[in-house]
Amino acid sequence: MESGPVAVTIATILSSIGDFVTEGVKWIGTYVGAITDNPLVMAFVIVSFVGFGIGLLRRLIRL
After folding, report:
1. Which of 10, 14, 33, 57 has a Cα-to-Cα distance from 43 of 20 to 30 A?
2. CA geometry: angle at 53 spanning 43 and 33, to 5°?
3. pTM of the model
4. Per residue in 20-61, pLDDT tens?
5. Cβ atoms of 38 and 32 closer than 8 Å
């Protein structure tokens, strides 16, 4: 049994991209929820962002 070429339309491509983005947002929401529910992990994330910001500012000032 031979099958012909599969027709790919813009609608199917956009639908697939939409599904991918939707699942990505759900995945990120799950992990952000896990981080914000645990104060110890949230403290580590905040300290990491503050350290990153300070390092970035120091590099920008040296330019």
Report:
1. 57
2. 35
3. 0.55
4. 999 999 999 999 999 889 999 999 999 999 999 999 999 999
5. no
